[in-house]
Prior knowledge:
- Strands 1-4-5-6-9-10-11 form a seven-stranded parallel sheet.
- The chain is built from 13 helices and eleven strands.
- It is globular, with a radius of gyration of 19 Å.
- By secondary structure, it is an alpha/beta fold.
- The longest helix has 22 residues, at 40-61.
- α5 packs across α7.
Amino acid sequence: MPLTNKASIKPFETFVVGSLPRPRWVLDVIEKRLNNELSEKECANLLDPAVLSAIKMQEQAGLDFISDGEYRRENYVRIFADNVKGFKRTIRGTDQEGRIQHEAYVVSKIEQFNPIAVKDASFLRKHTNRKIIVALPAPYTIGRRMWDQKTSSKAYPNRTEFVWDCVPILKNEINELIKIGVDAIQLDEPWLAKLVDPKHIEDSQIQSVSEDISLSVDTINSIVDHFPNHFINVHFCRAHGYRKHGSEGKYDPIMEALTRMNVSRFAMEYATPVAGGIESLKNFPSNKILGLGVIDHTSTNIESHSTIKKRVNAALKYVKPEMLTLNPDCGFAPSALNPMDMDEAYLKLKSMCEIATLLKKEV
């Protein structure tokens, strides 16, 4: 079964970015799995009903494309390390709620030993008739998060070599997702978006922004060019946790890169003030679909119809209606941290979908 292609996307269709708020008991189950206190089967038996609930919530909100809430993942990028040999997990401390915080770094040559998202996607595909979206971390973000000079250099002397080794694994995973009928693949690339922030560049000791941008573009193209007929998205955000942004600034420094990236759609943050304004869309590539962020997941306010419509109208000055879709700025549990509850997420998504229904009637 082929994935959805770009031509089949309708104006103002609604997407989630991926993660949804998870109850504390779900997070505890995942932690017990990481600590080998629960088997994979025991974990699945506990989490299956929770995932079903997340699916039904999204259907009830009215979304066109839904996810499994990423309920089974400890983290959006470390899911790669959980299913690929060559990584070592460490504990870096506890979060504001006393939960253990993990890191994972590559320590030997990588080799896939389990599917990354296929099993979870199969469950989602089986339990909804809606179109589904499944996210995978992009190679550059994997490299930025899980390569460390001190820990990783014996296996990979430089970050670039490690990033390129991630590409064939992600190709294989996407190929398997296609086979089970996933409608949209999303590559999460928040660390490219962080390159708009000079403070991040300085803190990360990035020597050449242009080289880092090219590494992101080239590795993503190496993946997606293998699937020319399928609907593949890239999501940009500023990296989040506890309703705080990890970086800020206008998209202008990376907008040219979007013209070189051979994907169908970009899901981008524009609801948050730290995005620097909608004017950066003046350079958005006309042949790409925009996933316009109209819901600020860091805000406790439930966006009204008028607020969402205002954000859409502002974007329509730069992007044609047939190339515009709607989504929240990011997932509702970014980096696995989610202070909001499910009701808040539901009301935000419901408001977005209600205004989308009205907009669809106007085109």
